Amino acid sequence: MPIAGQVRDQGVFDGMSATGTEKGALRRGWTTGACATAAATAAYGALLSGEFPDPVEITLPGGHTVAFCLCREELGADYALAAVEKDAGDDPDVTHGALIHARVCLRPDDGAGICFHAGGGVGTVTKPGLPIAVGQAAINPVPRAMITGALNRLAQAAGKRGNREPDLDVEISVPGGEAMAARTMNPRLGILGGISILGTTGIVVPYSCAAWIASIHQGIDVARAAGLRHLGAATGRTSEAALQRHYGFDDSALIDMGDFAGGMLKYLRGHPVRRLSLAGGFAKMSKLAKGHMDLHSKRSQVDFEWLARVADQAPAVAALCRTANTAAEVLGAAQAQGFPLADRVAVLARDQALAICRGAVEIEVLIYDRSGELVGASDG
């Protein structure tokens, strides 16, 4: 019997085995959208036949077939409930191990087709700017399309309603989802009460950070829909808190950029606001100033020789740059010499950001130390 989420079509991943892995490779997983589709498919299948398909097969957006084992089955007179355990593979996903429930209920023929509802642990959209309307369950468009397509195929195979959608209520719930959502960007995006049901391919690629970047984009969309013209973005909690104090930003004006400066700036190029205040520590801002768009330590490093050239007007600081072990050591030396190295780095970081945005947004860069004190600014 297949394990949950086993790939039944070996063409899903180039060079991967039937379990989606190869020796030494990180194991891929399945999105909440794929799990919800599997659970809903099993539930409606039980309503039609009286038996739950286990394992249950679904088709991913790319056309490949995968199978999931069920963790729970419950069949009533006019409803069925099934659950699938979310396996995120080797990705550090907060929803890994969550049980994704789908309760499918028959509804008297009213021509409304398939209607989606948020059960416990699934959020509700409360702010405009997201791809789902305010008041609707936070089940994104691709998972909705996956579920709708799967249930339509089952209905047609059973001779129900011809080519019309069956009239069904589909409620997705995730026990513990509200606590999981507190560790995501959902509250800031105005998605309240739980997690979102996400996914565009059905597949979770470990450490791809696609979900984080998608949340950055959604944060910008929500802010623009609210009419906000000045946004703040920060690399971490300390700089974000300092930035919020500096401008009195509401949470909805703050973008949790993390290390993904490029992902945010490229999106702003096509979805601009009037002004962006970009904040971070000296090390990360020096990497942005050098032209790095991913500021994570595994993907970019502080270039001390480059910092020495930036500090060429302060020979003692430049000399230390070439022997320093940390960016904090360099910053401390510059401050002791009264040399505005952090200001210079902020200006260069701003210039890089402006180049990515192609002038669509006014940008300033603010540099904070580890205690949240402002130590450098592109505007002086």
Overview of the molecule:
This protein is an alpha/beta fold. It folds into two domains: 199 residues, CbiD-like; 168 residues, Beta-carbonic Anhydrase, Chain A, CATH 3.40.1050. 35% of the residues lie in helices and 20% in strands. The strands form six sheets. It has a five-stranded mixed beta sheet with strand order 5-6-7-11-8. The protein has a five-stranded mixed beta sheet with strand order 16-15-17-18-19, sandwiched between helices. A three-stranded antiparallel beta sheet has the order 1-4-3, with helices on one face. A hairpin with a 3-residue loop joins strand 5 and strand 6. Helix 1 runs parallel beside helix 2 and helix 5 packs parallel to helix 7. The longest helix is centred in the N-terminal third of the chain and has 18 residues. The protein is elongated. The chain starts with 5 loop residues before the first strand and ends with a strand. 45% of the residues are buried.
Q: Which class do the helix and strand fractions yield? A: alpha/beta
User: How many strands, what sense, and barrel or not for the largest sheet?
Assistant: 5 strands, mixed
Radius of gyration: 25 Å
Q: What would the CATH topology of the largest domain be? A: CbiD-like
List how many beta strands DSSP finds: 19
CATH class of the largest domain: Alpha Beta
Tell me which CATH architecture of the largest domain applies here: 2-Layer Sandwich
The coarse silhouette is: elongated
Strand order of the largest sheet: 5-6-7-11-8
**Uncertain ranges:** 1-23
CATH superfamily of the largest domain: CbiD-like
